[in-house]
Structure formats: C-alpha cells, structure tokens
Amino acid sequence: MGKLLWGTPADLRALLCELVSWESRTLTEGEKEFPFKVREKLQNLDYFQQRPDFLQLHEADPGRNLLMALYEHPKAVDTIVLISHFDTVQTEEYGDLEVLACNPEKLTKKLFERKKELPDEARFDLESGKYLFGRGTMDMKMGLALHMALIEKAGIEQWPLNLVLLTVPDEEVNSAGMRIAVEELVKLREQRGLSYKMFFNSEPAFSQQPGDEKHYIYSGTLGKIMPAAVFYGKETHVGEPLKGMTANYMASFLAQAMEWNSLYHESDFGESTPLPVSLQQKDLKMQYSTQTPYRATALYNVFLMKRNAAEVMELFEQTARQAAAVCNTAYAELCRREGIEGIGEVRVLRYEQLLAYAEIKRGTDFVAHLKAEILSHPEWDEREKSLRIADKLMIQCHELAPAIVLLFAPPYYPAVNSSEDPLIVGCVATVKEAAAELGVEVDQIHYFNGLCDLSYVNYSDNGNGWSSYERNTPVWGETYSIPFAGMLELQAPVLNVGPFGKDAHQYTERLHIDSAFVQTPHILESLMKSLCKQALETV
Hints:
Layout: H1 9-21, H2 29-42, H3 46-50, E1 55-61, E2 64-71, E3 78-85, H4 104-112, H5 120-128, E4 131-133, H6 137-157, E5 162-168, H7 176-192, E6 195-201, E7 205-206, E8 215-218, E9 220-221, E10 223-225, E11 227-232, H8 247-258, E12 267-268, E13 271-272, E14 277-283, E15 295-304, H9 309-338, E16 347-350, H10 351-362, H11 364-375, H12 382-396, E17 403-408, E18 416-417, H13 422-437, E19 442-445, H14 466-472, H15 484-489, E20 494-496, E21 500-502, E22 510-512, H16 513-536
C-alpha cells in the first residue's frame, strides 16, 4: 500500500492552506488558474500517474474550467459524485489585512494583535485556538481538500466503489461551472457505464444561531429564483407632474406587495423558507434633469422548497395585478381630486407577451438586433442585461404604458430534497453513528440554507415548469441557460456533509480545526466505507 499524502490532520491542514493560498475570487485570474493547480496536485497521486486521462478539464465559459477526476474500480458500477466549488467571494472587507486574507496561518496570528476589534463571538473563537481564519477556509476549500483525500485513499485501498471528484468555478455568482458539469456528468456516465448512486457535497455546516457549535448535515438544499420587473410610466416635466406618471410611483406599490409576502412562504419537514425581499430597485434615469423618471426596475429574491418556476410566475403575476389594482385606485382618486383625465390604468404583462408584441410590431430581425446590442456590453451582468432588454422593448412599444413587465433574472437554483430516500436515511444514520464515536452531536437539516450546486442534479418537475422560466428570461439561450434535460437524467439522491465553520462571506470567516481535520475526515471515511460494503453486493 502506498503512502498517503493527505492522510493525517497535519497533512490535510497543509493541503487546505495551499488551496486557500491559490486566490480564486470569482471572475479573477486566480479562479481561471485554480483547476490547473488542483490537477497538478492530483497528478502526484500514483493512481492518476498511471491513468492521466482520468483527470479532465472542461471549459465552463471562456477562460474558466471545471475539473473532473475519476477513480474507477475495475468491477464497480455504483458511483458517488463528490461536488465542490473552488471560487470564493471577494476580500475587500479585510481592509489592510487583505494581503493575508488567503494565508490562514498568518492571518489567524495577525488577528490576535487586533482581537479587540473583532466581534465578541469571533474574538472568543480566536482566543480558544480552535479556529483557523481566512477566505475560503470554510466556504469551501476545506470541502475540496476532504474530497481530494477521499479519492487518494480510494485509489490506494482500491475501494469497490467509483468516485468522481468534481470541482467547479462560479458557484458564488451564476453556477456556470455546475451547469456545464451536468452535461459532462451525463457523458461520463455513458462513456464509462457508470451508475450514479449519490451526489455528495461538503459545503460547510452553518451555525443556526450565535454560539451554536452543533454539527449539521443536509439532505437537501433550498432553491432560489429571482422574479424581476420593469416599470414604464409616462415622462413629463416636473412643472407639469400630472401629465405623466413616474416609474417610481408604480414600483412603490409592487415593493409593498412583494416584501415579506406570506404567499411565497413554503414549509417542509418543519423547516420554512425565508420570506421574499427586494434585492434591487432603481430608476433608469442616468443623469439629472427636470424630466421625471419614467422607467425603473426591481429584483426580488424568492426561496423555494417545492414550487417550480411556472408556479412562482403565477404567484408573481397575481401579486403584481393586486399591486397594480391598488395603484390604479389611488391614481383614479388623484385624478378625481385634481380634475384631470389621467394617462390610463397600469397594466401588467409578462415578458413573453411583450416580446411577442414587439416582434409583431417591429419584426423579429429588429428585436434580435436590439437584444444583440444589449448582450454585447461586457460591463453588464446577466441581471442588468435581462432588465435592459425588457426596457428597450418597452421603449419600442411605449403605447403599452403605463405598464409593469414581469420577468425572471438569473440565477435560478431549483430546490432539491432527498430526506425520505432510503439510501440517504441510511447515510444519515451512519454519519450520526460515526460522529458519536468522537463525541460529536450531529443534527439533520432537510434544506441547506445556503445555495449550493446540488440544485442542478436530481431535478424533478412533472409539470414542465421550467418552460415558463425559458420564455420569461430575456437572456435565455444567449448568456444564460440551465440544462434541465440533462438534470432530469441525473437522478440520484443528494447529501451534504462538511466541516463546521462560521461567518461565511465575512472577514471573520473561520473553520473549526478539529471538525475539519479530525472529525469530518473520520465521518466521511466511515460513510464511504459503508457505501463500499453496499457496493460489494453489486461487484
């Protein structure tokens, strides 16, 4: 048996610190370089030296790649996919310590000199010596390190179970890496004759309240969708305000109707989705003038458990029509009070209706050119481009105003849950038993409350609800798409077991040392060995 490179807590800690030192903030050069460095590390393993073609990079989008590493037992069919992401959020919040943000050992020591500046809980954790601080320590390069250690051990011990290590870019923004990975997983399954038994992630366990030190595992993940609106009123001079209607006036009614609206609340297994809130609201007046702002946009965040895109759009339209009715009633009263005729009632239409109207009025070639011009702006992200397309179409169809145009803006994360799957029920029991051996208490949460790439596997949608998303997302098929058909082919339960940490996306992000380097490795190996025993029945 060969020597393990990452078989001890010290080895794992060194591996994590090296992975963290490879700065890989989303949309940076570091993110582009990172998978090549991981491939180089894995090439040091005897297993991949003998099988270099089992390490493959696949382009997620120009310049960014995902990495797939396959451990294949010669007689095994059952396969576990180990999913992680290697991008991190930005590091500006570290201030003058930003240079150390990706150096956990030095940052943790340096923070001791400034511990009085830390929040109480972070200072207590720092003084305890039980935590390692740094960007990506918790979210989620430790998860990748754990997966690398698993695939190394599988190769040396010749586990009777196939493993696919999949690590992807862009999880923190649009999940471009995982959306491309879906098709690659389908291809790999067909090429190698694999049977995917489980999709396994090691996103960190989040504390549920201040001071919570309990270890959590997740048998599903919340979904997220982003309904959006373009408001188009009637321009006028501020000296003649009653000859027009500001988009801000219209938007205020929908903001009141959407924020914290219990219609969007879902519950399952005793857990609940957070209520919807607005993520952005702005008018599109680019400079000061005495013309009133007659165009505006808004983005709303909606979490999901059971609903699909079609159901959310139905609710969104219902909410918007109620908001428009209240707006129209208030505006009619204003017109009566001021003795004016007014500019008409606010109407509500979906993007797909606006698009069809514009194509009839201006022609499909004109509309295609309009969209292409907007899509050519690299400084605008997918959300801005989506809103701009709808806005430009309304400019061409201003006779529809005043109007609220409803659409979806990326990203979309479908909810996934495998809590009642027999395999997952058994896995949860195994994890709790392995944790108990170390005196660790583990609780099951049915929906991971941070978004994760597990949303793009084990997809279920009997009503073809995704078609509503395709028709009402302006950038669909251009700069953004979701491989729904491929996701339907990846039918296997999901589970997330990762290390404990705190304060993801904050400058106090930190990883529990024992959880990361002692407890979770033991739990994961126990789980994989249990799955190996089951796999032996099929070998």
